[in-house]
Amino acid sequence: PPKPSFEAVAPEVFRAIREQFFFLPQTEYRRCLCIEPLIHAGAGGGKSGSYFLFSADRRLIIKSVKKAELPFLTRILSDYFAHLEANWYHSLLPRFLGLYKVKLPRRPVDILLVMNNLFFIPPRHSNVQLLEAFDLKGSLLKRFVTAEEIVQGTSVLKDLNFCRHHSGTDNQGNQVPAECSACRQLHIGRARWASLTANLMNDVDFLREHNIMDYSLLLGVAELPPDPSQTSGEDTYFWPDCYSQWQSDAGGMRGRSEAGKELQVVYFMGIVDVLQEFNMTKRLESAYKQRVQRLAGQDASKISSVDSSVYAQRFTEFITSHWS
């Protein structure tokens, strides 16, 4: 009978990323993935059909990726490493920690990508409670999760759920009218606004230069307990303080007023889904959807599938207009 096969892609490069930019020793990485059972997290909410696994401590995510994403990632891997090397403490890009090809009997090859879990809350801060999660693209078409979808189990909401000041459509194409309210703001404080904006734009420039689009800002909003200095839970294993400027407060970034006063909220954020190239398939999809929008008398610029430069500008403008 055929035997299972397992192949690590560019193992030395990913080991360097783990140890230099994520502070994860090899022994700890093996413990996360091999010693304790993985947790099945189900299928993603997008169109890719990917499935997800968590390491037992939920610090790492293993995601199945499309076959076309493997050669694309290996092609940009050197540039990605150089970008992290220059910006490791400030970058909002995902930390790709391992890439594997797994072949089980009577199954096609699975390509598995290991990365950081943006919503990981260290055990010593387990009393921090994640209240909301959003996938933000800056697009307004099919970017609203309905109450029915939430009841059915959709937990990560979209752009129009995040800020009802805008109008757009839900997944079925139904109109979602704007509400008469001001744009929702993430309160990060004046001192960090410039730094966060500059580093977001730096990461987006990297994605644009590599013709990447369709990425999102994954955002989690958590509530701090009345006394955040009180911790709960124990750190059984190795935990570095943080691997990024934006993970330094209970695994995220604590909210601050314009004057710099600390707020009882923590934001977890990072750019995800960064392996979609604006290739011929996406160009055809873009042309078709723009034509459909124009024939319906709608704004064609609101579709998600657009040129990487247009996507980058729209994404940056939407995100930065919603933090203060």
From TrEMBL:
Keyword match Repressor: no
Domain PIPK: 1-323
Keywords, sorted A to Z: ATP-binding, Kinase, Nucleotide-binding, Transferase
Record bears the keyword Metal-binding: no
UniProt GO BP: phosphatidylinositol phosphate biosynthetic process
PANTHER family: PHOSPHATIDYLINOSITOL 5-PHOSPHATE 4-KINASE, ISOFORM A, PHOSPHATIDYLINOSITOL-4-PHOSPHATE 5-KINASE
Protein name: PIPK domain-containing protein
Organism of derivation: Rhizochromulina marina
